[in-house]
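Repro:
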Amino acid sequence: MASRKKANASKLFVLDTNVLLHDPTCLYRFQEHDVFIPIITLEELDTHKKGMTEVARNARQASRFLDDIVSGAETKIDAGIPLKSASRDAATGKLILQTQAIHSVLPSSMPVGKADNQILGIVMALKDLHSDRAVILVSKDINMRIKARALGLEAEDYFNDKVLEDTDLLYTGTREIDENFWSRNGKDLKSWQEQGRSLYQIKGNDIQSLHINQMLWQEGAQPLQARVINLEGKSAVLQTLKDYSHQKNNVWGITARNREQNFALNLLMDPNIDFITLLGQAGTGKTLLTLAAGLVMTLEQKLYSEIIMTRVTVPVGEDIGFLPGSEEEKMAPWMGALEDNLDVLNKSDDDGGDWGRAATRDLIRSRIKVKSLNFMRGRTFLNKYLIIDEAQNLTPKQMKTLITRAGPGTKVVCLGNISQIDTPYLTEGSSGLTYVVDRFKGWEHSGHITLQRGERSRLADYAGEVL
């Protein structure tokens, strides 16, 4: 009976400082359960509040949330302050602040002066005090969770910000269809031609699992590559793709080398698609395809006034310090990828000789601007082709800040590899790139492709497999 009572009772979650620094709104994310904040957590929050980093901003925001909750409720602090009104009914539990010293006996090998160990001591004491309910430590620190479990305490990661538990389930933007797909969904099949493309209207039960701008492909006797361009209930319209693998359809001299690259170029070259995400390992051609499409649409089709390229300045090794020069010059060390790809794009035009190539390169460079993420707030980009490189290192909040910069006529392309995250606190499941892929997948003006095959060289492909 006691165990059933414990299972039904609301839980008491003890928050580690890093959870508040990671997501200040975590106070409102525990639904009917209570949240306990030790004094040492508030002390640590105070030490992180200075500066302009994302962590410092979050520390200040967490303090503001706590101030809002506690203001006017000083008499209830001992019993716990209801979170219902402060969270606008998102949380129905209580916030409990530590108001007196809590003593517990930790193993002698654990120094009491360490903040982590003090929090563990509090969790242990609360567990003895509240034997009728589950007391759980919530921490982003793996070692802290290991120590808690070694002491027989319950501990878990903060999951609320994770878009997906398993990134294998992330939407790929493509789907292989079998031969039976047509018999299942082609009963009232209609087909017609428009601007050199074939269109098919199909109806059936499979339609509910499709997304707009998803790429469908079929191999076999009648190969097909098509895009879902319209979805209404159990009816969908598919449009065949333009074949960018053929030299006559080259994009700034670049042709698609595999199926996914062809899918990507069909999305990139479509002016009706405002937001594109391309995921893929190193060497799959993300930056090259995006730049080639950008140059054609900017210089030849005149759809955009210029290309803006930005990336998160997280060095893989140690930081190289304060660099002299303008914003463009400061960003130059991080833009080696841009230069490498421009070399490839510039090489494809052999007609003009060295002079022609130099002139083309100057023209291209005049239309490509390199900007730092640090100065993006408050800007609006009109008729620009905005490329966000290494987007896996952005938090969902930073991603929102960037994408909302887009004004009328602007196309935003996010590139990244979620298995290569260089930022602490971010995981594959909580990266801003994973977040936007998941949130944008049903919008008619967005597209996503996961590029599978590396096309750099046989050496790079083999290294990617065996190392």
